[in-house]
Amino acid sequence: PVDCSFSGGVCDWKQDADDDFDWNPADRDGGAGYYMAVPAFVGHKKDMGRLKLHLTDLKPKTSYCLIFTYRLVGERVGKLRVFLTNRKRAPVWEQDKGKDERWKTGKIEIFQGAETNNSITFESERGKGKTGEIGVDNVILISGLCPED
């Protein structure tokens, strides 16, 4: 597997220069490394912050699985979406806050067709809330289909 965690790993993470705010590193509970987060009070309602994972050397006509942990904490904190390069208009994954504020695992199947995906974008949309945050951590890309739980 390719480890794209923020504390190390081989992936190339870039903040999008055309968005409204940046994702920032936040310390993990227990202090082992950090995750990327957007506090709820950053920006104005509907503002977007995008964090791009640039992928290189993915083989065409191959399946991959993107696995990551995420957390949405706080009232009306907003939305977290994931986009693939070649499907810019529609997110392949989207989540707003549920009842549960714990870290959860997201999985996305990526099929490299003739047109290859060369980036994955995590987009945070600011909600109405003033407290809480949206966080992403432990991003891993593995070859093959996503494993069953």
UniProtKB/TrEMBL annotation:
Coiled coil: none annotated. CDD domains: MAM. PROSITE patterns: MAM_2. GO terms for cellular component: membrane. It comes from the Eukaryota. Residues 2-148 form the MAM domain. InterPro entries: ConA-like_dom_sf, MAM_dom, MAM_domain-containing. Transmembrane segments: none annotated. Signal peptide: none annotated. This is EGFL6 protein.
